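Subgroup meeting minutes
Present: P.N., E.W., G.H.
Scribe: E.W.

1. P.N. recapped why we're keeping a running log of single-chain structure predictions: easier to compare across weeks, and new members can see raw inputs and outputs side by side.
2. G.H. added today's entry (299 aa).
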Amino acid sequence: MGQHGDGARPKAMVTGASRGIGRCAALALAGRGFDVAITARTVQEGDGRSSTSSVKADARSVPIPGSLETTAGEIRERGGEALVVPMDLLDRVSVGMALATVMDHWGRVDVLVNNAVYQGPATMDRFLDIPLDLAERIVEGTYLHQLSLVQKVLPSMLAQEPWDDAGTRGVIVNLTSGTVFVDPPAPVGEGGWGLAYVAGKAACSKMVGILHAEFRSQGIRAYNVDPGHIVTENMRVLSGRAGDRPEGITNTSPEIPGAVVGWLASDDDDAVGLAGQLVKAHRACKERALVPGWPLPTS
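Output recorded in log:
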């Protein structure tokens, strides 16, 4: 995507961008000419913590690499302006204030990427083990506060002049999960997944179809992106393999869905044509060679 008619760089806002898919999406957008506002709780390197995803597991909190300041530095290396905006996804006031900060600074958001979700106990617990108070928090942090962000940003997007030949006024990308669309083959702990997590993701994923039906004719493009199986820093530290990082890009690297998010925010005709749909990150990335060196050559 290039500059707007007034010469200004387009603006993106990515939630949960201190590490993982959010970080990679922010960097991909910066590489495509965007200035990027990034949100998360961890501002400085060394302050990040990761906690267990089950109420049945031993409660523990372990250090996790990644921060907004580190991601911001990488955005600037790619020529974009980085706006660091601390945000607690479980606090609706904090979510609203984060968007207000971005709007006060730039006056517009062209692309919103809903990547951040609730992470913690009850996401991966069996049916009878899910505390209702935590189930409520998961719905807040995986659906309701994403809904709040979209409701707040949509009016300003709709008021903008189109910025491509397809009449786009705004792009909304929700990171979903393949678990939304299939039933588990087994219980949690035996190859399956938890209800609380997938229920929140399912609700958030339905937002895209509604947005497409109501606002596509007014220039809003909305997408669900299924990242596939991605190994994040959170998964590594909880498994005790924080330092075990593969060389280069592999099939489980967050750079793959990150690159797809960047591509969907572009004015590429194929990306525009996928508006309103579920985009499988590995397939889209492979078909369009979005990540140099991936897929790895087969012998």
